[in-house]
Amino acid sequence: MKKLYLAQIPNGEPLHEDLFNSNGAILVPKGKIMTPRLRQQLLRSNIEYFWLDATGFNEVDHYLEHFEMETVKEIEEVRKVYTESVKSISNEFERMRKIGNLDKKVIEETAHELVESIGRHQQVYLGLEGIRRKDFYTYIHSIDVAVFMIVLGKSLKLDRKQQERAAMSGLLHDIGKTRIHDNILLKPTRLTDEEMRVMQEHSRIGHEILTKELRYPADIACAALEHHERMDGTGYPHGVTWEKLHLHSKMAAVCDIYDAITGERVYKKAMLPHEAVEFLMTIVDKHLDRSLTTQFVRNISVYPLGTRVTLNNQEEGIVVRLHDGYPTRPVVKVPRKGTVRDLLIEQTIMIERVHDPREAAVG
Ligand SMILES: [Fe+2]
Ligand SMILES: [Fe+2]
After folding, report:
1. Which tens digit of pLDDT belongs to each residue from 234-245?
2. What value does the mean pLDDT take over residues 35-50?
3. Is 321 helix (H, G, I), strand (E, B) or coil?
4. Minimum-distance ligand to the CA of 261?
5. How would CATH label the architecture of 58-92+101-299?
6. How far is the CA of 197 from the centre of ligand 1 (A)?
7. Which CATH architecture has domain 2-52?
8. Contact predicate 93/138, CB 8 Å
9. pTM above 0.85, yes or no
10. Is there a smaller number of Cβ atoms within 10 Å at the N or the C end of the chain?
11. 360 pLDDT exceeds 60?
12. For the chain, first and last CA: distance in Å?
């Protein structure tokens, strides 16, 4: 996570990047010019620093040279829709935090845009999971959970309208966190038992906000209440068993766990997608049900865009394109040889090893 102090920003120059707060809300948008007046306003709200690149999309720029024109174009489209969604959702969540209300129309439109965009570029959405560095910002996590719920919903053959409702329940699943104090919500270290108890209240609070204050119907509000319930009844808040949960809650549980373990925290390293998939399979039948989790895992790009791999012919390469329905057979560019290997065509070539992106880059 990169921090930028207000004192480091000169007056009179347009900002090169969006500036985020610790929840993932955009405080000052890219292009805005810093003025003494704006500086005063920020200082009055006790804002002394910002986070940069909370969406993790800036990381993608380092990889663009490896990708084909078509993929680069798709990435730009996805980046646009994704960034717009972050702006909309963070604005509404901040309003909920400050004045206790939000615009339901914006939530609906965001869900609609995401469904349309994922309908066109699913592989890019999933593919970017390998490149984007995901720090854990509540608002961005809400978008990512909605993205995964749409992907899962599509594979469960939900129609567009149903995908949108699933997406809305995903966008809103952690809305209760807008009423959890920042001291707990943003605590950089592990929570104590008491803090954990307070944090866990977010599911009950979220459900109340959605049903009582915003009058959402049950299928959209359910995931807020039930996304931490587990198959064996060890979850919260009610410890109910899996059969009793709404489909959206089950979907949210799977997607929420996946997004949490693939995100970075101060006290833990993010799992790579193939590690996260393995982890999910270890909690199947205990915390999550087998058919839904398998369905989810089948759609996840185990070797997302930008993944550095060693092939069984010992060539080192980088994943540059994904084929729909064949997550283990991507297109791999081998920079040292100046060649591209399409594993869907070259069936004897396999991925032998996945490199951690924190290791040195492929030359
Ligand atoms: Fe949650
Ligand atoms: Fe969550």
Report:
1. 999 999 988 899
2. 92
3. strand
4. 2
5. Orthogonal Bundle (1.10)
6. 12
7. Alpha-Beta Complex (3.90)
8. yes
9. yes
10. C
11. no
12. 26
